[in-house]
Amino acid sequence: MGTVLDSHFLALTALVTVGYQLVFFIITALLRFDKVTDFAGGTNFVIIAVLTAALKGTWHFRQVVLTVLVVVWGLRLAVFLLMRILNWGEDKRFDEMRSNLGKLAVFWIFQAVWAWTVSLPVTIVNASDRNPSIEARDIIGWIMWVIGLSVEAIADQQKLTFKNSPSNRGKWCNVGLWSYTRHPNYFGEMLLWWGVFVASTPVLSGAEWLVILGPIFLTLLLLFVSGIPLLEVNLYILVHPKYIASLLHLYLNADAPHLLYFHVKSSADKRFSRSEEYRTYKNTTSPLIPLPPVVYGALPDWFKVAFLLELPLYNPGPERDPVS
Prior knowledge:
Elements: H1 10-31, H2 37-56, H3 61-88, H4 101-118, H5 120-127, H6 136-164, H7 184-200, H8 213-225, H9 228-232, E1 236-239, E2 249-251, E3 260-263, H10 268-272, H11 276-284, H12 293-298, H13 301-307
Antiparallel strand pairs: 1-2, 1-3
Helix pairs in contact: 1-2, 1-4, 2-3, 2-4, 2-5, 3-6, 4-8, 6-7, 7-8
């Protein structure tokens, strides 16, 4: 069907993403109903993938495959998280945001940036006229996606089952994949989106290679912002309004009254740091890349930091009193 706003659908998908997230932001702000937050995030990917494929209308095999992969991931994540929050009740991430429109807006803007940026590889592939033959990079990318989605889905279900058991109340999840990595779901998500990027590379040319910013953004997000740090350590996420579309600054216990912050009240370290069993689990379990505990525990600290992402950020030492 040709060009809509621009030949790569970048402006169109940006407008659609902003509009879609704005609708849910208004619902959340007016009704203080935050159960649709993750649903809005996951389905945004589905809309971008399907919309760009339909508007281009060429339906090359590579375009169809990548669109299906993104749709399957987006729907699975959206439905899983929606059912989970409906089961749990309120989303505790929004306890400090419901009465503060500014903080709530920051969250929704950042979610829009996340959905649009991470979707870049499939957006560019669907907009492309190039259709080279299927090659090794396609197959490798698809395999990465299958493995990543399998790991993420299995890990999510294992943790949900663990948390729903009354006998596990007040415990951390250390069963199944969670015994090989402290964050198997994040490992799976990173792997599958890097797979989408790898599978997109046969059609990329020139500046189109900048779509690598999609998986890079996701990786940095999970490693330094809204993923592992929020679950493992007690931090403040600080967002300067001037740079809201492109920059998120992290500090530990920072005192900056001109910044907006979200304080994570309950991290794994805060809840379980006095447990010797938990400290053993953390010392012998990889933060991201799955490894047998006996192997990971025997590795020197410098190797864990340099090659296995055991960043000092995840082990800040004695907890300091948060600044409020």
